[in-house]
Amino acid sequence: MKLLTLALGLAVLFLFSGCSEKNALDKDSVIEESSEVTNSLREIQEALTSTGPEEAYIPILMFHHIEPIPADHPDQVFYGLSFAPEKLEGFLQYFQENNIKTLTFEDLTNIFDGQMPLPEKSVMLTFDDGYTNNYNLARPLLEKYNMVGNFALISEKVPEGGFHMNEAQAKELAKTQHICSHTATHPNLNEVSQTQLLSELKDSQIYLQSLTGQDVKCLVYPAGKNNEAVRAIAKEYYEWARTTAGGKTIYANQKYTLPTVRIFPTTGVESLKTWFE
Ligand SMILES: [Zn+2]
Fold this sequence. Notes:
This protein is of the alpha/beta class. The chain has helices at residues 2-22, 27-49, 76-80, 85-97, 105-112, 132-144, 167-173, 194-212, 228-237, 269-276; strands at residues 55-57, 60-63, 65-66, 82-83, 101-102, 122-128, 150-153, 178-181, 218-220, 240-246, 249-251, 258-262.
């Protein structure tokens, strides 16, 4: 597989070097091609130096609100994005009892670089949007079980606080939990200008890194939206990017289209059993 990647990479390089001559006067296409060549070179380099696995079964669970919302709540979208804290605790107990390790994206990098052994059973917990209830209700549970979640914060919501966790809370959270970017303003990345796209990915990273002191290398695309242009910028600044597409296996060559498992208010431990046993 690595040899195939290498062969494909070389073929891409060959093709682009040919195209560049033909379109030598088209500045935009030359810039675009040179960045693709750079990416191809990087992929070849990664394929040659990586000693980690090419795939790993690690379900990445996707949570939003951790709050007990009644099923007949008038805002059904809110209900649909909620998960009761006692149910989360049930999940954590299950992980503890079954020796399922909770991983950060940094662990994932180390596993795929061959620097950390792949645990026999592992899971990733991702919390989207950075709601204050994540700080108040999910964080204490994770700390109680000595487990770790990955919290995707919308950087421009943090200074506002209120519904979303504020700066003091985000800093406190980062002491025990892993921080990811969920962009600066949570737009549909497929529809923003190239300038905004860059600022959404880069500025949110700069802000979150300086606030939390963590190296923020994971991105969660708002509503999972991504296209080639979005992924190209993501590759410049991040090591991993999660979508909302369903799946439980992580492939080394799909670091910018990571799948997830959507958790519904009704998802129970029975589901975990089918995924881990
Ligand atoms: Zn979101």
